[in-house]
Amino acid sequence: MTTKTTTHEFQAETKKLLDIVINSLYTERDVFIRELISNASDALEKYRHESLTADEPFDGHVPLEITIALDEKEHTITIADTGIGMNRSELEHNLGTIAHSGSNTFLTHLAEAAKKDVSLIGQFGVGFYAAFMAGKKVRVQSRSWDGSEGHEWVSDGSGTFSITEMEGLRRGTKIIIDLKEDAHDYAQKWMVESIIKRYSSFVPFPIKLEGETVNTVQAIWTRNRSDITEEEYTEFYKFVGNASDEPAYRLHFSADAPLMINALLFVPKENFEMFGFGKMDPGVNLYCQRILIDQHSKNILPEWLRFLKGVVDSEDMPLNISRQALQDNALVSKLRKVVTKRFLKYLDEEAKKDEEKYLEFWKTFGIFLKEGATSDYEFQKELGKLLRFESSKSEAGKPVSLADYVLRMSPEQEAIYYINGPSRVAIEAGPYVEMFKKKGIEIIYTLEPIDDFVLSHLGEFDGKKLVSADRADLDIPQTEEEKSEEAGDAADQKLDADSTETLVSWLKETLKDQVKDVIVSKRLVDSPAMIVNPDGYMTSTMERVLAASRVEKGLGFGGDSKKNLEINPKNAIIKRLAALQKTDSAFAADVALQIYDNAMIQAGLVVDPLVMVERNYKILNRALGE
Ligand SMILES: Nc1ncnc2c1ncn2[C@@H]1O[C@H](COP(=O)(O)OP(=O)(O)OP(=O)(O)O)[C@@H](O)[C@H]1O
């Protein structure tokens, strides 16, 4: 039989990655053992899952395990598994390119990570190529579970690798690393053992180091809660989450009905999406009777819970389900619903126990819950309880819950009100809150543009409608006191009914290109005018966001619906405008347009700055006595 050897170039990206691994990452060297054990464990999981449905897998009797052998004289470390193995083309493809997510993300974000914190590198994992952190030469001997001939893959990491057929191999993969001069320590048992204890103690297969099993192979999530120590939980979190911090929250629960579930979920401390690392992969794995069915499962939790780490195990899942079938499996969606509701309830309980701590969580991960509230109707009720916003009755920087708001509502108040603005100060200086302030009605400040989408999707909370204060049809009934005030003193300070009517019809004509309608305000207290939305659904902020995205997509400006302008007949400028309109309607028209532009700006909407500034100078000129 001829021994066929072929030589291959590494893909360009792989070369780049190898260069970084070999030349820059030596301070993080220990992780190469974790990466290779993790690959071995993945290969064993894959084999275990596949073999359930296979008739006669190759070497079906061989025990599932990882063995590590050391040679202090030859300076080698050998990590072997009895997993799924690789055939020739898999060796060539899997160990020559970086088509897989982990290393790609690693490469893309390496520069940013390095700038911030080198320890973040561990978050991504370098995968197989980590072997070259410690190895000057790496040999991979592998034979696939399909029973095809085995092969040896060899490389020194410098640009090429070779693959040679090899007889006599058993199923699985053996990686033999010739250690670099300054990495000989990795052939010492105490050293390797301490690394395994640190990173890999929860690997679900026996790890035998020089013949001795060094991990405890037990699915921690199936154990009794009272038997698990805090340290074990934290160690397990670090293991499943590939994390180096401690979890902020932990939920370990079991249920028998409607489904058998054992779940162990962790909330990390950090949100890596906030560091600009792009969208993360989901962090929860789906098991069935302790067998991994779906790693980083996209199905077991909604996408907006991708920040969670952990495990969901259900005995009701069919063991032989394929990964594709998970996607629209009724049982999986039932599981998802039960686990999600349980987790959201847990968060609500934790918030009640310790609001401070919850607010820390909210600051870091609130954005994910908002994403859920805008995209997922199924959990809106639960999500509504978890939202936090600043309000006219909250301290700055201390958001409150909608439930707290409802508790403070007076019996007459029917709706929950909110208004968006770039900051607390800007909102409080604007026209929309004047009446709320005067009447002592609490109003929620939605400081992020997404907040309006969240509240408008939510629609109501606890049976109370959620209403944006920039709606045209906002109707808050006057109290008796306010009515008599209107009829008494205040009436004298107001523009009389006839002049108001004349002014309104003149404004309608003058601003007919800008506004849909001009209305006498029942709610403005001090400001001359404000913009309100006749469309009951969209708030000005939502419109601004959508307009910006239109521009971004190159769809141009426009498409905005016309607004209503509310004017305040008690305001001095409005009163003077009524008089001016009769004597100098051209100048009055400039003032009207300026009032409109000002109101648009206060609503956070866009005006044409060139036209506005030119008009403004014209008005200033007059004011200075031109
Ligand atoms: N011990 C092994 N047995 C079988 N296949 C393996 C083994 N090690 C690696 N592979 C294959 O090589 C591929 C590349 O491995 P690598 O560790 O670089 O990336 P990954 O495991 O896919 O991603 P990551 O490590 O970032 O999760 C794997 O996806 C797997 O198919």
From TrEMBL:
Keywords: ATP-binding, Chaperone, Cytoplasm, Nucleotide-binding, Stress response. GO terms for cellular component: cytoplasm. Residues 472-494 are annotated as: Disordered. It comes from the Bacteria. The keyword Electron transport does not apply. Residues 478-489 have a biased composition (Acidic residues). Homodimer. HAMAP family: HSP90. Molecular chaperone. Has ATPase activity. This is Chaperone protein HtpG. The lineage of its organism: Bacteria, Pseudomonadati, Thermodesulfobacteriota, Desulfobulbia, Desulfobulbales. The gene is htpG.
